[in-house]
Every structure is written in C-alpha cells, then in structure tokens.
Amino acid sequence: MFTLSCESTVDLTLDHLTKRGIPAIAYTYTIDGVEYSDDMRAGNGLTVFYSQLIAGKMATTSLINTDRYLEFFRAILDKGDLLHVCLSSGLSQSASNAMRAAELLKQEYPKRKIYVIDSLCGCVGYGLLVDCIADLRDEGKNIDYLYRWVMDNRLMVQHQFFSTTLTYFRRSGRISGPAAILGNILKLCPIMHLDAQGKIVAYAKVMSETKAIAKTLEEIAAKIKNGSDYDGKIWLGHSNYISSANKMVEQLKIAYPKASIRVFDIGPVIASHCGPGTLSIYFWGAMRK
To answer: Which of 47, 114, 170, 195, by CA, is between 20 and 30 Å from 239?
Structure first.
C-alpha cells in the first residue's frame, strides 16, 4: 500500500483531492500580520483573500519547513509507502525541505519506500500532473512505476500564461521595477511559461487582453501534443479573472474538441505572487527546454 500526496499549491479544490484520495499539506500566507492556512476552497478564504488584494493589501507567503513535512509524512508512513510530489523548486525552496525530511525518515522507516519528487510544475499545472499520476495509480500501477513515470514526464506538462498587471510580479522579483511601471502605463500583458528548471520566464509582451489570448492560443498550438487531435486534459487557472478564462475556454473547445477542459481558481499562495488578472493554461506537450 502507498499514498500519493501533494501540496495545496496544486490549486485544485480540497473536495477534488479528497475524492481522489490525495492528501495535501497546506502552505500559509500572511496579510496584515495575520497568518492564514490555504484552505483549498473548503471555506470562503479565497473570496476574502482576493477582496483584500483588491483593497490594496499585500500578501506574503512562507516555506513549508522540515518539521511540518516530518509530521505530515509520518502520518502517511505509519500506514504504508509514500509518493510525495512537491511544488517546483524553481518557484519555492519548500521542495528542499521535503527532501530533507524524506532523508531523515528513511532512517526512521527503513522498510518503507519513500519517494519525494520535485514536480518542476506549478499551480494548476502541478495539479494536472498529480491528477494524472492518480489516474495511473487507479489503473493499478505501483509506486516504483509511478516514480519513474513522473521523472520521465514531468517536463511535458506545459505552463502557458499571461497577466494583465505587473505589480505583483514586480513585488516577487520576477520583473524589474521600471519595467513593471512602464508595462502598467502601456497596459502590456507579459506572455510567460515555465522552463525546464520550473522557473517563470517572461518572453514576450502584447498590448491588450485580446492580443494576449490570441498569442497564448498560438503558443499552445505550437506546443500541444498531437495538435488539434489532442484528447488529454487542458486545465486553466485564473486569479479572479473568470471572464477571460471563459473566453479562452470557448476558443479551446473549438481548437481541441476532443480535450477535457476544466477551469480552477488560482489559490492564495500562487496569487500572492501573480495578483488578480492572471490566466494560465496547462496541457501535455513537447519536453520543456
């Protein structure tokens, strides 16, 4: 017996993960000196969070420390083996704490298999990877097979996204201050993706949401597996930006009629760094470079 686990930054709902039998360890964020746990849409935390951001509040996030991982992993290892998939190390150093905890627990649980994997994915793309691992688990694949499969396929999860505001990317150091100020004045939308190290790369800019959607669709077409015959999952994440998500869904349905398309809210931990007005699309494609 083994357990597949993840972190709240998969940005799926707690209900979804519970139904799939995937426990998640929660990140925390802080606003005005008050620390909150990412409730994964189990309550009204996300609504309150976005209202605070819109009101001008600033949110900060914290790493998951080694002690919290130890507690989380022990509860799983008391029952069986562990396959834990972390948020990309290119987005957070929590992955190194998880791996440190795993090394300590290998001595404490010498008969257990303990796999902790850097997903090199983020947000709903990380969620898509974990959900596909669960599909294979439910088909009867064992923990060793799944470990090898994740290592071989994690860089094939494409992360394509854009944002209508650069303020939060500036705060998190993704974009320089002068570039963010100029971009906001000109209403530029940066076009971004995740690279092979699981890091955000802004590689183009367009003026207006309409052009951002068109450019994003162009990038998806260039990268998606099997082109218009793609029949896998296309999952979208949005940060308080449902109108743009709905526009994108309509275009994707036309371009990829066989695909399974779903929309998820970007949770407070990722949104603390991207802010409202970000739209992201995740799908299987060529190996990220």
So the answer is: 195
User: How far apart are the C-alpha atoms of 41 and 281, rounded to whole Å?
Assistant: 20
**First-to-last C-alpha distance (Å) of the chain:** 35
CB 2 within 8 A of CB 121: no
Record the pTM: 0.94
Exposure class string for 157-196: b at 16+ Cβ within 10 A, else e = bbbbbbbbbbbbbbbbebbeeebbeebeeeebbbbbbbbe
Separation CA 47–CA 237 (nearest Å) = 15
Tens digits of per-residue pLDDT, 181-225? 444 444 688 899 999 999 998 889 898 899 999 999 999 999 999
**Tell me, what DSSP letter sits at residue 285?**
B
As a whole number of angstroms, the distance between CA 273 and CA 275 comes to 6
Question: Token digits for 147?
Answer: 């470990």
pLDDT exceeds 50 at position 9: yes
- Give the CA distances from residue 173 to residues 33, 169, 180, in Å, rounded to whole numbers and listed in that order: 21, 6, 10
Distance CA 76, CA 98 (A): 14
Is residue 45 packed enough to be buried (19+ CB in 10 Å), middle (13-18) or exposed (0-12)? middle
Q: Which amino acid appears at position 75 of this protein?
A: A
CA angle 131, 253, 134 (to 5 degrees): 10
DSSP secondary structure string for all residues of 27-92: PEEEETTEEEE--TTSSSHHHHHHHHHHTT--EEE-PPPHHHHHHHHHHHHTTSEEEEEEPPTTT-
- Positions of E strands within 134-288: 157-163, 188-194, 200-207, 233-238, 260-265, 278-284
Mean pLDDT of 236-260: 97
